[in-house]
Amino acid sequence: MAEINPTAMASQMATYYTQGAQDLIALQTKAATGTSSALTKLQSALQAFDSAVASLSGKKGLVQNTATFGAADFGSASATATAQPGSYAFFVEQLATAHQIAFEDLPAVPVASGGPITVGLADGSSFIVNLAAADQDADGTLSQAEVARAVNQAAGNGGRVSAMVMTVGTTTQLVLSAGATGAAGAISVDASALPAGALKDALSTNKELVAARDAIVWLGDQGSGTRLQQASNTFTSIPGVTMTFKRAMAAGESPVTLTVAGDAAGTASNVQSFVDAYNALMKAIGELTKPGSSDGTTAPAAFTTDSGVRMLRSKLNDLVRQDFGGVRLMDLGVAADRNGVLSLDAARLDKKLAAMPDALDQVFGSASLTAPSGLLGAMDQYLDQWLDTTGGQIKRRKDAVQSMQAALAVRQTRLDAQFESAYERYLAQFSRLEALMAQMSQTSGMFDMFAAPSR
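^ that's the sequence the OP posted. Answer follows.
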């Protein structure tokens, strides 16, 4: 009589009993995991494209201009999309400088010689420095380093004046520097409230290292042009242009020329960045909606039959073909092939902008939250329907997948319990059968023994 294995047979029967439900759970779990992974990929692709849209919108105009000085050592300049092409002459009479004064060989004095001093600026502002509380190492003496620290940490200073100690040769100096350039930053120190003594005397006299000056620049020739004076060496007198001067000019020297011109390559680069970002997004969506192979070797992608994702792709295709104020993206040299892949014809873009300078900004517009406009605004608003962190499509879909995965985990736990229950039931049955078969085998042996012929 053949022997049986109760443990193995119970496991086989319990598996057979639960196999159908287990296969269904495994299939649904695999689908949920695939959907979750696909949603993460879609979210990343949409966020990357949304960042590209925001970056382009932040440029305040996609048309690029350049601004350059005739001689690089005079300074640097940049131009925004609103700058008007042209040439400008500047004479730099004087650069703006930050005031700097020094107090030489400031004596180390007892803390009792300390007290309040007032540091003032030519713009009328001031702050109090309490030297009586400046003894950081508690040795009873005020050093130059402690005075400098007290100035830097004084309430109300806020970086308007910085103090440091410098030693040149055998001479040590307490140096005070204005935090900003310009005549309004001229520093003064009032030590009249200090007790009479060496510290008060030393702080009553200073040496000027650098004068506080405003920048003086002439638009045109010195003396006959338009005089511009301000505290900073960076000027924004020409709309859309920022200039920072680095060198003053000698009397009689010819003005330096600033040239503002269109930057066709920079403009095309801005449009190309949109084209590249759009193509990358559409490629990602294409991968997530790819059908399986006809021979079954390649499974369909997670969103092959997803109408929502297909509508997303369709909507994006519609937006890039939309008319904005009578001009389309296609009019600017951006073409789409049969697969929806965009490409840029820079020569056509340049030709269109020559005839219609504001066409690019009209089509692209802005993704501003307060006043969205054009293609960028439309793209940003539509993407928000997917990316909104409280009620967007991605958030809702991820929540649904997580709920499904939680439900599947509960079903798996219940099925595991059913398997254990079936296993225990079958184990008991097969164990009884094994015992019965053993008993029958023993009885059969006894009959065989009695039936055997005697010798």
